[in-house]
Amino acid sequence: MRKMILLASLLAVLGGCQTTRPIVKPEALDNSAFMNLWSTYSHCQLSLDVDAMRADVQRLNQVALAPPPRRHFPIPLPNTIKRLIAHPIPRLAVDPKAMAAACSLHAGQVAQQAGLEPLATELYHAVVLDYPQSKYAYYVAQARVGLEQLRLRIPYALPISSLPAGPQGEFSLSSAY
């Protein structure tokens, strides 16, 4: 009898080990994906080319507005319990949504300065509609200012800090046009 119980428990342990998924180690931070995102954001903030900025906005929005990836919980649990467990989200030192909102806002300002009112309006509206959360209130407020300037036909002037630098590092108005 004792041998039967020992054999049954050994089979249960071995069988149980074969039916569960192996415990997955946490994924390493995908540094290349983050650096690509940061490079796109930096390019957008430094650019005065509206078409290139528009492409940057699209790339940043793809990342910012994408749903977080679903991860498998390493321990098998009943579905009723699985629904109560929050899935871990990737942690970054920056907020991809804030990066996308800032890029959209800057692209709208450059488009407005270039006299491309329909494009500027589109970009400002995107900020207002895509980022209603309170932590993006600054970007939404600035986009509304831009929309109001467009409505009143007030030209937008980029701040001097966003103009390209000349050969000795001083700001050059002639290189901005």
Produce the secondary structure layout:
Elements: H1 2-19, H2 31-46, H3 50-64, H4 79-82, H5 96-113, H6 117-130, H7 137-152
Helix pairs in contact: 2-3, 2-5, 3-5, 5-6, 5-7, 6-7
Detailed description of the structure:
- It contains seven helices and no strands.
- It has helices at 2-19, 31-46, 50-64, 79-82, 96-113, 117-130, 137-152.
- α5 (96-113) runs antiparallel to α6 (117-130) and α6 (117-130) packs antiparallel against α7.
- With 177 residues, the chain is mainly α.
Strand content: under 5%
pLDDT < 50 runs, ≥5 residues: 23-29, 162-177
End-to-end gap: 92 Å
Mean pLDDT: 76
Instruction: Name the quaternary structure.
Output: single chain
Share of residues in helices: 55-70%
Order of helices and strands: HHHHHHH
Number of continuous helical runs: 7
- Give me the Rg, rounded: 26 Å
Count of DSSP E strands?
A: 0
Inertia-based shape: elongated
Give the helix/strand class: mainly alpha
Biggest sheet character = none
